[in-house]
Amino acid sequence: MKSTVIIKGSSNKVGNTQKVIDFINENNQFDVIELLDYNIGHFDYNFKNAEDDFLPLMERIIETYDTIIFVTPVYWYTMSGLMKVFFDRMSDLLHYRKELGRKLRGKNMAMMSNSGENDRRIGFEMPFIESAKYLSMNYLGDSHAFFSGNELAEDAKIKINEFKNSLI
Fold first, then answer.
1. Mean pLDDT, residues 62-80
2. How far apart are CA 90 and CA 42, in angstroms?
3. pTM for the complete prediction?
4. Which of 90, 116, 133, 157 has its CA 20 to 30 A from that of 52?
């Protein structure tokens, strides 16, 4: 069993976020979940989305992995919309499926963002850190990847390797 999963929250399956994941996961040591492949609706206070893909996906993640690495592009100074919807749906685990949510306790979370330049703003990581705290997960850290043209910048590769080594 692979104990680490990468959850990709990009609207582009073959864009820069995938390049970052390919670099992090060059030896295919991590499984990758592509959020675009799932039907995950917005949070609903009446849990009208209980039959979409979110809860079965979370069951599989929780039962299979100890560490979750969220990888997201920076869209308008924050995580992607796909990633935000996924995080909002964690509320299902606090109200509708509490027993499942409790199983996140003690698991690990990390985050990797990316954008065209080394311009991630201070505080971008806050929703990930605070969500980990709230869910009693261990936050392992975060990093930011950036590009030089269509390729990962050399400085970014160094930062990504340091980040990856801190997780292993």
1. 97
2. 11
3. 0.96
4. 133
